[in-house]
């Protein structure tokens, strides 16, 4: 469930196109607009601009890369 070693180094950069895993196994397209480290739970959390829902905080394990068009 997510990485802990090197959690202060983001796996995704601003502008990366990603898929966000939703409930029921569906995916929603989004773009990374920033990240922060939650030191209380020692995890990286990303701010993702979702196409139909606006910006959301998303844990790293819910993201995967999207191929460019």
SSE layout:
Elements: E1 17-21, E2 27-38, E3 43-50, E4 54-59, E5 63-65
Antiparallel strand pairs: 1-2, 1-5, 2-3, 3-4
Brief summary of the model shown:
This protein is an all-beta fold. The chain is built from no helices and 5 strands. The chain has a domain at 17-64: SH3 type barrels.
Structure characterization notes:
Strand 3 (43-50) and strand 4 (54-59) form a beta hairpin. The chain is mainly β and 69 residues long. It has no helices and 5 strands. It is globular. The model has no long low-confidence stretch (mean pLDDT 83). The protein has a domain at 17-64: SH3 type barrels (Roll). It has a 5-stranded antiparallel beta sheet with strand order 4-3-2-1-5, with no helix packed on it.
Offer a few descriptive terms.
globular; SH3 type barrels; 69 residues; mainly beta; 49% strand; five-stranded antiparallel β-sheet
* Strand order across the largest sheet: 4-3-2-1-5
**How big is the Rg?**
12 Å
Unreliable stretches: none
Overall shape: globular
CATH topology value of one domain: SH3 type barrels
């Amino acid at each position: 469930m997510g990485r802990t070693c090197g959690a202060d180094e983001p796996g995704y950069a601003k502008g990366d196109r990603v898929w966000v895993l939703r409930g029921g196994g569906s995916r929603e397209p989004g773009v990374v607009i920033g990240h922060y480290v939650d030191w209380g739970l020692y995890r990286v959390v990303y701010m993702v601009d979702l196409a139909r829902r606006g910006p959301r905080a998303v844990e790293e394990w819910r993201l995967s890369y999207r191929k460019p068009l």
